[in-house]
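Sample A.
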Amino acid sequence: MKKLKIKRVHEYEVDGALRSSIQELLLESFGDDYPKERVYFKQLPHFRYLVLNEDNMLVAQVGLDYRVMNLNGLPVNVLGVIDLCVKKEYRSNGLGSLLLSEIEKFSGDKSIDFLLLFADHKGLYLKNGYRSVMNECTWLKIDHENHQSLGVGKEVMNELMMKEIGNAKWESGCLDLLGYLY
């Protein structure tokens, strides 16, 4: 594989051309369930890591959302991993693991207790040290098509995965996302 570069970009810095590239990659990766006219499902991430090829073409990306959550009554600092995806012809070359490694390096000296994500396909994340957890989650339900809050959801989520980054230890019990579900 030719030389690739990783770039961190804040969401407010994403211009029209980059937005189109991100949108194309998200639609290729997540299909018709992803909104066609935007680069987020329910909410904009705070920033993204982008992988660009030698022609400066976007070949992989991941969004990140930093927030406080409530784990069994205690505040925890969480960096949420959102919409990690790789262009089809670049898959199975370690780019997903590369992005997860970059996120971990970034998080190492920050006030981040856990990396958190929701995954239907867990193999990549298990391979990179994440583990499945079965907490009862509370979150803000959002109608992503109409940009409206629908109320509060509460259930155990089979897709929930996390990785301990700081000194805090993950516990079973209740996790209040204090916001939307990624």
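Sample B, a different protein:
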Amino acid sequence: MKGLIIDLPTLAEEGQGFAGEVPDSVFDLPPKDAKPVGPLSYDLHVQRFESELLLTGSISAPFEFTCVRTLHPFIQTISVENAAIAIEIENSSQIDATEALREEVLIHFPADPRCDDADEPHECEIDPRYLAVDKPSEDDVKTRPRTEGDDRWSALDALKNSDSEP
């Protein structure tokens, strides 16, 4: 896999610019999470400060998320315009900064992705069929609300009643 490899002996003292792309396979996310739909792009200035590298600039990658309101997929590009990443230099002549770039993008994922934040925003409204508790039997909602009580609480009620007995 191609990544961002920084060769320390050839890195200029005042720093050096790096621009390019890393294949979307770098993200390796579980199938139910966001799905990368393009490469991780970077445009960075890299400079060495004693025992660490400082990478500053911009990184971005497009992902397909599922809206938490509508459950529809949408594309959103995660962009970090003022990225500042520090990498500790160990005893090597080359540093692979790919994992640090990957992590920086992942920590900027939205907690609750919504399609109105998409690259091409959609109207983000909950389908009214899912709002009503008492639904007619003719609707096409696949999971209907329960008519009886939630029996998970009965186990707790049994504990409460056994504690109060002498």
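Observation for Sample B: The chain has two helices and seven strands.
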